[in-house]
Amino acid sequence: MTRMSRFTPPTIKPPTQPLGVLASLRAMRENALSILPEIAFTQPIVTGKTGFKRWHMVQGPEGLRRVFLTNADNYPKADVIIRMLRTAVGQSLFTSEGAAWRWQRRAISPVFAARNVNALASIMTRTAHRACERIEANAQTGPVEMVREMISATFDVICEVALSGKDHFDAEHYGAAITQYMLTAGRASLLDFIDAPLWMPRPGELLSRGSVHTMHKMVKQAILERQQTGPAQDEDLLDYMIRAQDPDTERKMSTQDLVHNMQFFIVAGHETTALALAWSLYLLANDQAVQTHARQHVQSVLTTGCAAGLDDINQAPYLEQILQEAMRLYPPVGFLARKALANDQLYDRDVHPNDTVFLNLYGLHRHQDYWSHPNQFNPDHFAPENVVARDKYLYVPFGAGPRICVGANFAMMQAQIILMTLLNRFDFHPSDPTPKPVMQMTVRPDPGINLSISSLK
């Protein structure tokens, strides 16, 4: 498609002056994107102090390459990230460092090998069909809130491919526990800003104990029963995880390791994919030319109303471009935090031990020097010729380097199957209110994404 899309979706107006400690804390608790300064969209690095804490905000590809790849060992996850997640996911692949991370990565990487993920495509097709049935029923009474629908769809996928069904999950109860966790432990505390030690509990962690207990109980019950009964009839990701073994040491995961890693996979795996889908549908609803063009690709492969499968998405790569552009504008996680262990240099800035380094993915993806019309929706940003010509560290929604998201191929496959199925079944149009991006742990639309939907059947 050669036409430049003119739709400019909502963003957050950045502050023009540095924020103090209390203003930063307020911003982090209400919307972390609002701390990103105006110059973060025009410079590769910004350095400042909040109270006594020195920080660097990196949104240039050279600096990101150094933090993610060439000097990654010097930049472990910042304490605030570990603190926000530790009660829910413990020493899982996402939160561990050093040797604890390396053995888990060696063990888990084969679980997400292409052959394993591709074998799950038919399950994703069935869940996409069920999502359409729910959406069609809800659309009879007016606009449909798509974040809720997409979270339901991706949670359905996760339960089927990870745990062979929902026998151990009350989806509504589990989803409420996730939301409660995000609103308590998942928010910044004043203690984080004054570098209080990690052993000192934050108020949010204390308030999150009930939700953590709910989530862990459901996941552990599924694991214990599977360990007793053996593999499911059609092997799923839990079976793969139980068998996972570090090829260097032959170490396998304990029940506690399995709980923490499955917990992170379930929570992160459905939330981030659901947001990518919801934002994609919002963008398409507001750009009918792109939506029509995408549907032409879909209907050149599928009969109207049919659900997509693995072979189908491989024949409609434009759908992947739409998802990539949605994650450029609204990366599931807007920025990451690292802590420097030793002296280093990023661009012309000296980095000292204990400095915080923010990896500003939201600013990178909307940077004025790196993207044409960075705030506009344009899937042609990801046309093959543009991808080949671009530094790969200019687009990193799944991270990069040795700690790139291990489930990225899984997430993209389920997102493409669901999006292709939806476009083959429905026409989408915008409905009030206009959402704004709000980040606490993930970049969510506030108050949601309401769309008017008509069936194509």
User: What's the overall geometry?
Assistant: globular
Q: What is the highest CATH level, the class?
A: Mainly Alpha
CATH topology: Cytochrome p450
Strand content: 5-15%
Biggest beta-sheet profile: 4 strands, mixed
Number of domains: 1
CATH architecture: Orthogonal Bundle
Low-confidence stretches: none
> Helical residue percent?
40-55%
CATH superfamily: Cytochrome P450
Summarize the helix and strand pattern as letters: HEEHHHHHEHHHHHHHHHHEEEEHHHEEEE
* Gap between N and C termini: 26 Å
Total E-strand runs: 11
Number of helices: 19
Determine the mean pLDDT.
89
List the helices and strands and how they pair.
Elements: H1 21-30, E1 45-50, E2 53-58, H2 61-70, H3 79-89, H4 98-108, H5 114-118, H6 121-139, E3 144-145, H7 146-163, H8 171-183, H9 190-193, H10 203-207, H11 209-229, H12 237-243, H13 255-285, H14 288-299, H15 310-314, H16 318-329, E4 335-339, E5 344-346, E6 349-351, E7 356-360, H17 361-365, H18 384-389, H19 408-425, E8 426-430, E9 436-439, E10 443-446, E11 450-455
Parallel strand pairs: 2-7
Antiparallel strand pairs: 1-2, 3-11, 4-7, 5-6, 8-11, 9-10
Helix pairs in contact: 6-7, 6-19, 7-13, 8-11, 11-13, 13-16, 13-19, 14-19
Short description:
With 457 residues, the chain is an alpha+beta fold. The protein has helices at residues 21-30, 61-70, 79-89, 98-108, 114-118, 121-139, 146-163, 171-183, 190-193, 203-207, 209-229, 237-243, 255-285, 288-299, 310-314, 318-329, 361-365, 384-389, 408-425, and strands at residues 45-50, 53-58, 144-145, 335-339, 344-346, 349-351, 356-360, 426-430, 436-439, 443-446, 450-455.
